[in-house]
Amino acid sequence: MSAVRSRHRAAVVAGIGGALPERVVTNHEIAARLDTSDEWIRTRTGIRERRRVAPGQSTVDLAEEAGRAALGPDGHADAVVLATSTADQLCPATAPQVAARLGLGTVLAFDVNAVCSGFIYALATAAGFIAGGMAERVLVIGADVFTSLVDPDDRTTVPIFGDGGGAVLLRAGEPGERGALGPFDLHSEGELAKLLWVEAGGAAQRVPENPKDRFMVMQGTAVFRQACARMAESSRAVLEEAGWMVGDIDRFVGHQANIRILQATAKQLGMPADAVVSNIDRVGNTSAASIPLALADAVADGTLTPGHRVLLTAFGAGLTWGSTVLTWPELS
Ligand code: UT7
């Protein structure tokens, strides 16, 4: 799909926020328990540490904190779209609980599950609501507790994934203004679903036949190749649709899955290495939270400033992938 380019109303970024659990898990801590090393994890992934929720803390908590930060002190929204594949319950969605905690009243609220691409899918969904006149201000949140899906004994996934939340507030605005999102490029490839897969816990196998079936299994190398190819392809498509050249991009904010994936994709696109925005060393792969958290960190440390032209691209289980562009706005 390449779509959501309204002639009349654009979705404009009006706030940003991130949330991380306090508990830091270092590579050394993982290496003390599993057959791996700090050196292997750093050189193969770029990750030094990640965060993990405290007992009793879950997706709703991270989503609420990130959402509150994006709303700001007097912020309001008339819709909440939460990208997550680790909702607190299988039923209902988590977004209505987030909206209630934020005091937003009876606003429309629902979850979007496109795993690590979820935030881009959620942005496109929100942009569609704004373009269609269904909402004026939409709080778009990406939050995941992937440590709940990772097998604690699996050295191929434990080092990679961490927990976190990130959010942006979107408001209705003009297509040409700073902060306006779009166009979007979104895709899926269900035939390859098993490359990243959780066998049990859903309707197909509610109770795991084997206790390990409730954990995620990843074919790492195949996912790596798909991620580079699909994010590069989607980035090219969205740039063409936007009428932008690769050289126009100041900041490349890709899904933080592996620093080597980000570098390889940027190289394939012909983008300079210093355009790549990354916080993966500190947070690991936080799935749907990854892009808004990277944006929030880049704003906080001054890497991303008003006027920068930004390319967002993500890839995840499903398989799913997608991209969009914007010029970074002034945020109060
Ligand atoms: O969010 C979207 C989805 N996720 C991703 O995009 C992740 C994509 N994949 C990756 O980032 C990489 O494939 C990994 C980081 C998961 C693995 O890196 P790799 O360079 O593809 O390594 P590999 O899987 O080919 O494994 C190389 C070797 C293997 O040993 P042999 O067969 O060569 O003897 C693995 O058994 O490294 C071994 N290995 C490890 N060694 C130490 C795998 N995991 C570890 C580990 N510590 N944690």
TrEMBL record:
<comment type="function">
    <text>Catalyzes the condensation reaction of fatty acid synthesis by the addition to an acyl acceptor of two carbons from malonyl-ACP. Catalyzes the first condensation reaction which initiates fatty acid synthesis and may therefore play a role in governing the total rate of fatty acid production. Possesses both acetoacetyl-ACP synthase and acetyl transacylase activities. Its substrate specificity determines the biosynthesis of branched-chain and/or straight-chain of fatty acids.</text>
</comment>
<keyword id="KW-0511">Multifunctional enzyme</keyword>
<dbReference type="GO" id="GO:0006633">
    <property type="term" value="P:fatty acid biosynthetic process"/>
</dbReference>
<keyword id="KW-0808">Transferase</keyword>
<comment type="subunit">
    <text>Homodimer.</text>
</comment>
<dbReference type="InterPro" id="IPR016039">
    <property type="entry name" value="Thiolase-like"/>
</dbReference>
<dbReference type="GO" id="GO:0005737">
    <property type="term" value="C:cytoplasm"/>
</dbReference>
<dbReference type="Pfam" id="PF08541">
    <property type="entry name" value="ACP_syn_III_C"/>
</dbReference>
<keyword id="KW-0443">Lipid metabolism</keyword>
<keyword id="KW-0275">Fatty acid biosynthesis</keyword>
<dbReference type="Pfam" id="PF08545">
    <property type="entry name" value="ACP_syn_III"/>
</dbReference>
<keyword id="KW-0276">Fatty acid metabolism</keyword>
<dbReference type="GO" id="GO:0033818">
    <property type="term" value="F:beta-ketoacyl-acyl-carrier-protein synthase III activity"/>
</dbReference>
<feature type="domain" description="Beta-ketoacyl-[acyl-carrier-protein] synthase III N-terminal">
    <location>
        <begin position="110"/>
        <end position="190"/>
    </location>
</feature>
<dbReference type="GO" id="GO:0044550">
    <property type="term" value="P:secondary metabolite biosynthetic process"/>
</dbReference>
<dbReference type="InterPro" id="IPR013751">
    <property type="entry name" value="ACP_syn_III_N"/>
</dbReference>
<comment type="pathway">
    <text>Lipid metabolism; fatty acid biosynthesis.</text>
</comment>
<feature type="domain" description="Beta-ketoacyl-[acyl-carrier-protein] synthase III C-terminal">
    <location>
        <begin position="239"/>
        <end position="328"/>
    </location>
</feature>
<feature type="active site">
    <location>
        <position position="255"/>
    </location>
</feature>
<keyword id="KW-0963">Cytoplasm</keyword>
<keyword id="KW-0444">Lipid biosynthesis</keyword>
<keyword id="KW-0012">Acyltransferase</keyword>
<feature type="active site">
    <location>
        <position position="285"/>
    </location>
</feature>
<comment type="similarity">
    <text>Belongs to the thiolase-like superfamily. FabH family.</text>
</comment>
<protein>
    <recommendedName>
        <fullName>Beta-ketoacyl-[acyl-carrier-protein] synthase III</fullName>
        <ecNumber>2.3.1.180</ecNumber>
    </recommendedName>
</protein>
<dbReference type="InterPro" id="IPR013747">
    <property type="entry name" value="ACP_syn_III_C"/>
</dbReference>
<feature type="region of interest" description="ACP-binding">
    <location>
        <begin position="256"/>
        <end position="260"/>
    </location>
</feature>
<dbReference type="GO" id="GO:0004315">
    <property type="term" value="F:3-oxoacyl-[acyl-carrier-protein] synthase activity"/>
</dbReference>
<dbReference type="InterPro" id="IPR004655">
    <property type="entry name" value="FabH"/>
</dbReference>
<feature type="active site">
    <location>
        <position position="116"/>
    </location>
</feature>
